[in-house]
Hints:
The chain is an alpha+beta fold. The chain has nine helices and twelve strands.
Amino acid sequence: xxxxxxxxxxxxxxxxxxxxxxxxxxxxxxxxxxxxxxxxxxxxxxxxxxxxxxxxxxxxxxxxxxxxxxxxxxxxxxxxxxxxxxxxxxxxxxxxxxxxxxxxxxxxxxxxxxxxxxxxxxxxxxxxxxxxxxxxxxxxxxxxxxxxxxxxxxxxxxxxxxxxxxxxxxxxxxxxxxxxxxxxxxxxxxxxxxxxxxxxxxxxxxxxxxxxxxxxxxxxxxxxxxxxxxxxxxxx
Length: 236
């Protein structure tokens, strides 16, 4: 597991900041101040960017690449809390409430990160309402997602949880629901609390029933309604 990161590089351009959702609506004058204090950092694949229990010292924004947020026990078993892609950020909770990191974040591919230190982040929040509002919206969205995940774990079988996760990760593109990011069966298993073998059986059955198809290496969702499980696929 890689723990090394490239040395920090110069700050971002205004064009880059305009493309990041967290900075939507922030005036250029304030973005210029953010550009002066933020810096970019590249990390290789499978790098642990932050560790659970560490003190929170920075906000991280993914410019490119992907990462997973996870927790593990003493035996090395992992649960993936979520997957992150370009434009998404992490580390804000500890900066707001002063608590240590609540989970590990590991890069799933080479990542370009935008980093803002704790003091600079707090100063930016104090000086800009739009940035505060964007942070609050993101926190509310994540809370709603957590509520839905708890509901699916409590009320759905593995078949339903796999289908729901695929739909949740899909995005609208020319009238179709497409999963752009790389999503392995092992990742799905660790997110829904099932074995990889079970996930493989369920996905094969979902594909056979026309719930999705694989096209150019991407998953295209064809039905928003989850089909009834095949008895063989649903068997533990």
